[in-house]
C-alpha cells in the first residue's frame, strides 16, 4: 500500500555526491491531482554531502503537453519554494514541473514532478447530486434498528447503497479522470476495481460551506466498448451519528447521503466524453445492512451483488437514482490528503473466554478496524465484533467508556469455505476486539488491525536510551495517528470524536515535529474560519456541530495560535494571509467584551486548565494570559503581512494586556494568583513578566514542584509548558524527573499500567480506584502528550531561533539528563532534514549534527570544559564551517553552516 506515512524519506546524505533536490511538492502535496488553485506553490527539499553547501540559484519550468508555460529563469535565492508565476493555470490540465538547482560550486542538478488541476469553473460541472429515491426502489426497506443495539434509540441509518452507470466509449482513451465527492462517505469503483486507497472520503468538513472533491486517474481502467463506474455510498458525518448527540435523527447536515461524480475521458482526437451522476444512474442496497462511524457496520455476505461495477452485469432490477440537480456552490478541490490505511497491526494474542467468545489483543491501541478471516461458517451464521480499549479485571471487554458508541460490527456468512470481512464506513478506537459467534477456534492469524488516519507524511523520528521514554514517544505518536482522522479530534473511541479547539492548538507543536501537518491543519482552519460568529467568537469544536458554546479561553484562541504556529513552522505566509481576518476579529471580540483587559466576560464554557489534578488554576488568570497570547500573535501576523498600523495597534494592546495581567494576578511577593504550576507556567511561557518577576515565578514554580515531591498538577493548558519552561530556566533535572516519574499522576504511571497511547486524564485508571470517571475516560487523547515537543526541541535539541520561520535558523541545543545516555532525532524542515545524535560514554560527550542546505544554526554543546570542545578533531576556532561564539561555563556555542558535524568534549 502506498501512503505518505511510509513514503516520506530523505536521501542518505552519505550516499550523495552533490547538492540534491528531493521531495518535490505542489501545494505541499506529492504529485496532487485536481488542485483548485491557478498559482500553486511549488516546493522542494535539499540535501548535500558538502559542508557549507547551499543552493546558489534555482530555476523552475512548468510544462503542459511538453510545451513550456513558465520559466522562472535562474534565481539567486536560497528559498526552496516558488509560486507559479506564469499565466494562470488552466482547468483540468496536467502539468510537469522541472526544477534545477545550482550549488555553491556551480554544479547543476535537476528533478521533476507532476501535478494536475481540477475544475476551476462551476459550469464545467455536469454532475448532479443523486440519492436514493424511496418512490422507485423495489428493494425499499424502511430504516431499521440494527441487530441487538446496545443503546436503544430510533436509529434512522439506512443501509449504504450501490450506485452504478454503464456507458459506451467508442474512441480510444488518452486520459480519464474522475472527480468525485459525496454528502456522506463514498468508495468509488470503475470496471470492477476499487479506485485509489483513500478511506472515509470526502472527509469531514463543514459541509454547509465546503465539500471537498477528490480526483482520481482511471485512464488504465477504461476501454472502448462498455464501461461501468459506480460507488458505494454511506452516511458518515453527513447524516450518521456525530458526537454524543443521540437525537433520534443523527442528521447533522442532511437526511440521506448523496453522490456527485464526473468522469472526464479525453480522446486522442481532442474530443471529450463526460459521464456524470444524474437520473440515469441506478442504485440498490447490497450486503452492507448498516454503517455508521460511531456505531459500526453490519455486513451480510449472502446479499453480495457480485461484479456490480463491471460491464456485462445485469442491473435490470436496480432502481433509478433520484436526481437532485447540480448545485456545486459548496464544492472545493481537496487540499489535503485523505485518510488511508497506513499500517496493518497483527493480533498478538487471542484468549477464549468461558462465554465462548474470544478476546483478540492487537497489543496497540489504534483507530481503525479489523479484517477478519472466517472459515467454515454456515450460511446465515452471524459473527459479532465488539471493540474496546481496555479489559476488565476478569479479562472481558471494557466498553463503558465508549458511552453510546456501539463500536460493534456484524458479519453474516454466506457459507463459503473462506470469507473476509472488513467494514468500510466505520472506524473504531480500540486495542481489543471481542469476537462472538466465530465458527471453531479463532487464531491470531484470522484477525488483522487496519490502522486508519489522515495520511500526513512522517516528519520526525526520536529515539533514546530509555525504554520508558521511547514508549512515551510511541504513545504520543499513536495518539496523533488515532486522532488525526480527517480533523484533529479529541478521541477516536467514544461518542465524541470532535475537533476540540484547545486539544488541537495544544498538541500542534508536537504534531508538527512528528508529521507534516500543514495542509491537514489548513483544511481544518478553513472550517474554523467559516464557523466564526458574526461577533468574532470561535465555537469549541470545529467543524462546528453540537456544542452551542463559543469563545472559550484557550479553546477559541486556536484562531490565532494555529495560524501563527503553522507560519513559524512551515514559513508559508499564505497561512497568515488567509487567517488574518479571523485572528483580528477574534481578539477584537475578547477586547470589546473586556475593556479593562482582564478576560472575565464572554468566557463561554471556560474549562480552565482542563483535567488538572488536585488544584484549580485561576480561570481569569488563564483566560487573560491567553488573551495576551492571541494579541501577541495577531500583532506578529500584522507585521509579517506588512500591516504597519495594525501591527502598532496590537503591539500596544499587548503591552497593555500584559501590564493589566501583572497588576491583577501578581502579588507583592511575586506569587501568581492561585499559586499553581499552570498559573506560573502561562505567564512564563507567554512572556508576560519582567525579568525580576520571571525569576520569582520560576522559584515559586520550582517550590511548588518540590513541595509535592516533584509531582505535577497540570492539565491540558499547563502540561505542554511544564518541561520546556523548567528547561529554559535552568531546571532540566526537574523536567527529567517528571519525565521518568511513574507515580500517579505522571506519564510513566500510565505506561507502567500498560498504556500504548496517551490517556485523556491522569487518573484514567489507578491502582486505588480502577477505571476513572466513566462519563469521560478516553484512553486515546493526545492533549497530555504535548510533552513531545520538549523531547524533540530540548532533549534531542532541535528547534529554531525566536525570529526564525520555516526552521531557517536552527537552534541545536540538546540537554542530556535524567537516565538518558543517548538520544537522537531527525526532523524534516521545509528546506531539508536536520538531525542530532548525542551520546555520553566514558566521561565523553559526543554530538553529531546535520544541518540541511539553506539553513544556519546556533549549536550549543554542553560541556564541563568549553575550551576543549573539538569538531572532527579540530578546535572550534579552526573547524571548517563554524564560528565560535562566547561560551558559558557549561556550554560551548558556535554558529554553523549546512553540513555534518561531530563535536566531542569531556562530559
Ligand atoms: C473533550 C476534550 C475537550 C473538553 C472540553 C471533552 O469532552 O474530550 O478533549 O477539550 O471536553 O471541555
From TrEMBL:
- Pfam families in the record: Bac_rhamnosid, Bac_rhamnosid6H, Bac_rhamnosid_C, Bac_rhamnosid_N, Ig_Rha78A_N
Spell out the residue ranges making up region: Disordered: 864-887
**Location of the Alpha-L-rhamnosidase concanavalin-like domain:** 353-453
Occurrences of domain Bacterial alpha-L-rhamnosidase N-terminal (ranges) = 173-343
Q: Which UniProt keywords apply?
A: Glycosidase, Hydrolase
UniProt keyword Hydrolase, yes or no? yes
Question: What InterPro entries does the record point to?
Answer: 6-hairpin_glycosidase_sf, 6hp_glycosidase-like_sf, Alpha_rhamnosid, Bac_rhamnosid6H, Bac_rhamnosid_C, Bac_rhamnosid_N, Ig-like_fold, Rhamnosid_concanavalin
Single Gene Ontology MF annotation: alpha-L-rhamnosidase activity
Q: Where is the Alpha-L-rhamnosidase six-hairpin glycosidase domain?
A: 459-795
Q: Which domain of life is it from?
A: Bacteria
E.C. numbers: 3.2.1.40
Known catalytic reactions: Hydrolysis of terminal non-reducing alpha-L-rhamnose residues in alpha-L-rhamnosides
Q: Is Hydrolase included in the keywords of this UniProt record? A: yes
Protein name from the UniProt record: alpha-L-rhamnosidase
Q: Which organism is it from?
A: Kribbella aluminosa
